[in-house]
Design brief:
Pfam families: Cupin_6, HTH_18. The chain is α+β, with helices and mostly antiparallel strands. The chain is built from twelve helices and eleven strands.
């Protein structure tokens, strides 16, 4: 089973808003952080993008950027330009000179994700993906973004379903690239999947999450000694192997409880616990409430307390 695909399945991207962004001359804008993913593709010209806490990035024609959770950021035509606070909009944006042919064009957008497991799943992904057209062909991404734009502009039957599928495809296409910028090499799922021995382990874990895995068994799959495997997994993925498995089991359990229709006995067996009682104890310890209480909160639209899953360290 493809671990990246399972993460995106649980994120359930939906409800996209996409728009053209143009500019001419000197301009600078600043956006506040928001917890929705954002993406952008440069069509013509260039700009500088400066997410808070990171060095400015030069974006040029064909470059693609994805934020799994969008931080506060500034975008300017050239360094040193004062930025105007700007609110997100679902309509076309024009920066700088209002008259004349734009010298900068970009397609930008945001979309929703399933909130119940967002902290867990986003911690597995890089904080930012930057695919440079000079290093990787972004033609496929451009076609996907163009289709997203078309669906956002039209109100046709089945549009929501098509948008969901297009967003899933965009995420997979972006995240599986080898050249996604330095942020993509921080500890997390992508770093683990780029390490062949660890990729075998991650595929095995995701294919049979209910199995009674041990560190020794996983080390044999990786072809490493137990100690070397444990250190390598922790460095690449950001947590110890058994901790990763426990967190992933809880993510699947929260998703199942959120959707409803499954008994605790069956759910416990599916995610690797010997009994409903053992599962309930583990769930309460990690989530802060009993499975039944979490399910009731989810039905009321809350989703319960987030599972603790620290962001990986660069």
């Amino acid at each position: 089973m493809d671990p990246l695909a399972t993460v995106i399945d649980l994120l359930r991207p939906h409800t996209a808003v996409s728009k053209p962004i143009t500019g001419r001359g000197d301009w600078g804008v600043r956006y506040a952080a928001h917890d929705m993913p954002g993406f952008a593709l440069v069509l013509d010209g260039g700009c500088w993008l400066a997410p808070d806490g990171h060095a400015p990035l030069r974006l040029v024609r064909g470059d693609f950027v994805l934020f799994p959770s969008t931080p506060a950021f500034e975008m300017v035509s050239r360094p040193g330009i004062a930025c105007v606070p700007t609110a997100p909009s679902d309509t076309a944006m024009r920066h700088g000179d209002a008259e004349g042919e734009p010298d900068f064009r970009m397609l930008g957008g945001t979309f929703g994700i399933e909130r119940v497991n967002a902290p867990v799943l986003l911690a597995l992904l890089p904080g930012m993906v930057h695919i440079r057209a000079a290093e990787s062909d972004t033609t496929r991404l451009a076609r996907i973004v163009g289709l997203i734009m078309e669906e956002c502009a039209d109100d046709r039957p089945g549009g929501g379903t098509i948008l969901t599928r297009l967003l899933e495809v965009m995420l997979v296409e972006a995240l599986r690239r080898e050249t996604i910028g330095e942020a993509g090499w921080q500890a997390g799922l992508l770093a683990g999947l780029r390490d062949p021995p660890l990729a075998r382990v991650l595929r095995a874990l995701h294919a049979d999450v209910g199995a009674g895995w041990t560190v020794g068994e996983l080390a044999r799959i990786a072809g490493l000694s137990r100690s070397a495997f444990a250190v390598r997994f922790t460095q690449r993925v950001g947590c110890a192997p058994m901790e990763y498995l426990a967190r992933w089991r809880m993510a699947l359990a929260k998703d199942a409880l959120h959707r409803g229709g499954v008994s605790l006995d069956r759910l416990a067996a599916e995610v690797g616990y010997e009994s409903a009682s053992a599962f309930s104890t583990a769930f309460r310890r990690r989530v802060g409430c009993a499975p039944g209480g979490f399910a009731r909160a989810a039905r009321r639209g809350h989703g319960g307390p987030p599972v603790a899953f620290a962001a990986p360290t660069p």
